[in-house]
Amino acid sequence: MCNRYIICQGNTPAKPDTRLACIALDVPIGRTVFGCAKLARSRWAEGVDSGGEKDMNLQIDEDKHIAYIKLSGQLRRRTILDAFDATVSDKKYQGGMGRLWDFRDADLTSLESETIVKMAQYSTRFPAGINDVKVAFVVSRDVEYGLSRMFEMSSGGKTPIRVFRTMDDAEKWMME
Predict the structure, then answer these.
(1) What is the pLDDT along the chain (176 residues), one digit of tens a residue?
(2) What is the pTM of this model?
(3) Residue 12: which residues within 8 A CB-CB, separation 6 or more?
(4) What is the assigned CATH class of domain 51-175?
(5) CA distance 143 to 95
(6) Residues 43, 98: Cα–Cα separation, whole Å
(7) How far is CA 150 from CA 39, 54, 82, 118, 128, in A?
């Protein structure tokens, strides 16, 4: 059971007169949340939907203006969305920063096609600077390549998305 809270991009509770870009998040009843960063970090710290293991490595390169997100193992929808939330709410993440997802050690085969379509629409709830930046997926297997391309085609075109086989190619495209 969840309540709907409005969380501002600046990690302060929304006020009726504020003009900050805000997003709506589902928050379990009883949890006190003062910002999306706290929610994302606390959910990730608890190992939500990852069998208690934290299979995410986040590195933010402020010079290149890229967030590198590495996920490994068998991935489920919630794990990927929690990684997205943790990334965009990280203190170092800046609006307009691209996201490079490294799925080379990941298994996406448990994701159904309708789940991928829903995931592709997830970032549209976020303000500009998050939902309209370059996003690259790096994969090593054909099945992940196909599923990532399905995500790309389902995104609606607002966010430039590309799928690559190497980190170098993805990084070059991100920096163009």
Answers:
(1) 233 333 333 333 443 333 223 333 343 433 333 333 333 333 433 343 434 344 789 999 999 999 999 999 999 999 999 999 999 999 999 999 999 999 999 999 999 988 998 888 887 788 888 888 999 999 999 999 999 999 988 887 678 999 999 999 999 999 99
(2) 0.70
(3) 20, 34, 35
(4) alpha beta
(5) 31
(6) 23
(7) 29, 26, 20, 11, 23
Task: Copy the structure tokens of residue 91.
Answer: 């203190």
Amino acid at 173: W
Residue given tokens 């159904």 in the structure block: 112
25 sits in which H/E element: strand 22-28
CA torsion 53→170→66→95, rounded to 10°? -100
